[in-house]
Specification:
Elements lengths: L2 H14 L2 H8 L3 H15 L4 E3 L4 E3 L1 H29 L3 E7 L1 H6 L1 H11 L3 E7 L6 H4 L3 E4 L8 E8 L2 E5 L1 H5 L15 E4 L6 E5 L4 E5 L4 E3 L2 H9 L4 E5 H9 L4 E3 L9 E7 L6 H13 L5 H5 L10
Parallel strand pairs: 3-4, 3-5, 8-11, 8-12
Antiparallel strand pairs: 1-2, 5-14, 6-14, 7-12, 7-13, 9-10
Helix pairs in contact: 1-2, 1-3, 1-4, 2-3
GO molecular function, one term: DNA binding
Protein name: PnpR
Keywords: DNA-binding, Transcription, Transcription regulation
Length: 310
């Protein structure tokens, strides 16, 4: 027995004077109202109505019970309506966790655009390069490069997250040349700690190479890894989103440019319970429309397929 549905059937029958009209109000068959009221009476161990062939009348116990229940039903309906209003209203706080590089370079513009259309939405942004569970940490959306770790999460893929091996020109001129993937083993190496940092797959048109690397530095901060490369401390593996400007101005150069690594997606991950929330849906739609699967920084570096460069 659903106690709320049974109490609702009782209250509507008491107000309507018969089960038929109560059924019409709720939108169910008369037999459903009859069953729900009978289940409630059995649950309470009392008769709530005096019944006749055409009408029902509250018993003495029913009168007392009704005075308590009708306000409860009204409160429950008001609460349900407020919940519906909240889910459709584009207001409140949108809590987002995002990788530092994306949060610093690209998220401000998206937030600015969103708030022009929806000024009643405020943002609480946690910028960090660690992996975050949106359910456990209480975030509406997490922007990350890893697929959801739970069936209670939904993934919306935004763009390809390419990575490249980089170093300063000075470092490369003063250290053994890197002509093949195996040559990486002769150099100090840095990478993001959540990559599969020991075993690396590097591929080109004719070769598939598996290389085991022992990082001199691994960190949950891609910007620390970037600084490792900038200071000429060795070779680093960086997302093109982070390395783009350094590569274009010559501060860093690509190592093994003819080889590619496995390319994950940068995705928006959010709890299934948030899929109907208006502000979450609208922000996800804006993210999808802002970024193409082949992002602009890859096009600037000439890494995106030619058909995307239109």
């Amino acid at each position: 027995m659903d106690i709320y549905l049974s109490i609702e059937a009782f209250v509507r029958a008491a107000e309507a004077g018969n089960f038929s009209n109560a059924a019409k109000q709720i939108g169910v068959a008369k037999s459903v109202i009859t069953t729900r009221v009978q289940q409630l009476e059995e649950h309470l161990g009392v008769s709530l109505f005096h019944r006749s062939s055409r009408a029902v009348k509250l018993s003495e116990v029913g009168i007392s019970y009704y005075s308590d229940c009708h306000s409860l039903i009204d409160q429950m309906q008001a609460l349900s309506q407020r919940s519906r209003d909240t889910s459709t209203a584009v207001s409140g706080v949108l809590r987002i966790a995002a990788l530092n590089g994306f949060a610093l370079q690209h998220l401000p513009g998206v937030i600015e655009t969103f708030r022009k259309s929806h000024p009643s939405v405020d943002f609480d942004v946690f910028a960090n390069d660690q992996v975050v569970d949106p359910v456990q940490e209480g975030y509406d959306i997490v922007l990350q490069i890893f697929p959801p770790a739970s069936e209670s999460l939904i993934e919306r893929k935004l763009f390809l997250m390419r990575g490249v091996f980089v170093a300063t020109p000075e470092y490369l001129s003063n250290h053994p040349p890197v002509l093949s993937p195996d040559d990486l083993c002769q150099h100090d190496f840095a990478c993001y700690r959540y990559y599969p940092w020991r075993r690396w797959s590097l591929n080109n048109d004719s070769q598939h190479n598996e290389v085991t690397l022992a990082p001199a530095l691994r960190s949950n901060s891609v910007h620390l890894v970037q600084e490792f490369a900038r200071r000429g401390m060795g070779i680093a593996y960086l997302p093109t989103m982070v390395a783009c400007d350094d590569l274009l101005d010559g501060r860093l150069v690509r190592v093994l440019p003819d080889f590619e690594t496995d390319t994950p997606y940068f995705s928006a991950v959010y709890p299934t319970s948030h899929r109907g929330t208006a502000k979450v849906k609208l922000f996800l739609d804006l993210l999808s429309s802002t970024f193409s699967m082949e992002p602009e920084w890859d096009r600037r570096l000439g890494l995106a397929p030619e058909q995307e460069e239109q």
